[in-house]
User: What shape does this take?
Amino acid sequence: MRNARISGTGGYLPENVVTNADLEKKVDTSDQWIQDRTGIKKRHIAEDSETTCDLAEKASRQAMETAGLGPEDIDMVIVATTTPDRIFPSTACLLQQRLGIHGGAAFDVQAVCTGFIYALSIAEKFIQTGAANNVLVVGAETLSRIVNWADRTTCVLFGDGAGAIILGASDKPGILSAHLHADGAYENLLTVPAGVSEGYENPAFIEMKGNEVFKMAVNTLGRIVDETLDANNMQKSDIDWLIPHQANIRIINATAKKLGMSMDNVVVTVGEHGNTSAASVPLALNTAVRDGRIQRGETLLLEAFGGGFTWGAVLIKY
Ligand code: UT7
Assistant: This one.
């Protein structure tokens, strides 16, 4: 089977920055509480006129340029998002036409904060089997649209953004393994309890039992790290970079500790981006590729946990 390797990355954050001091004026919170409990200092929030597809387009163009590929080279588009532009067509179809890509499959993946990990794993299968050669994989969100800006327990946590990669067929190693999981028994701990079929009697806002989610995230991410290393007969010391979902610095610290990794080898963007759900892992990856920290040939562990619950990890030879 063929290898699936990352040939380009891209990212985009809306220009509008909301600091903790800005939020102190809206709800009963403090910069100190937010930084101590989450590590977040600021987040980027899309303008009303700016949609998930707008953010995805900018990140995708950068990823395609880095990979040296044009629209004619991309034969599949997958967008991981919880906040699609419309009910349908999918954001992937909207993005496909923006980028001038035609004919190949395009679809959205909904696995909330684990969406990009799911999308990457799906893309890998298409490349391995020869069904696709270059897949544009995007995580993009306008989470601010489903945040209750009067609820201090959630509104301080989230931000908007998009990250993208091109996954292409290669004779060099790329994705080494992918591990996806879900357990719908926990659907009520992190949810937006409104939708097309259930209806919109309640406002479509994120509701979270933060403390319970926190504990589950720490335990589950610890387990998936072991699962991924075992599947590859690797030691903790074989991992060069941890690129975790950026929900809370305390969760990231716990996973790094489990891996025995120095925080110098963990990509942390939560302070500047907040939790951007499906966009957080590709945005963090793009940040560390662009600033030169991540080098070709290094071993990367990407992991995420989110609503569903869903969780997953991908081990990559970059
Ligand atoms: O991305 C998907 C996965 N999501 C996550 O992984 C998020 C997981 N959860 C968390 O990150 C944390 O649970 C939170 C950051 C959401 C909350 O931190 P916590 O340490 O679990 O705090 P808590 O919910 O136990 O609340 C502690 C106190 C409460 O007050 P009392 O009841 O002790 O008087 C809250 O009302 O902090 C209060 N509080 C706040 N105070 C100031 C909650 N939110 C705020 C706030 N500012 N924004």
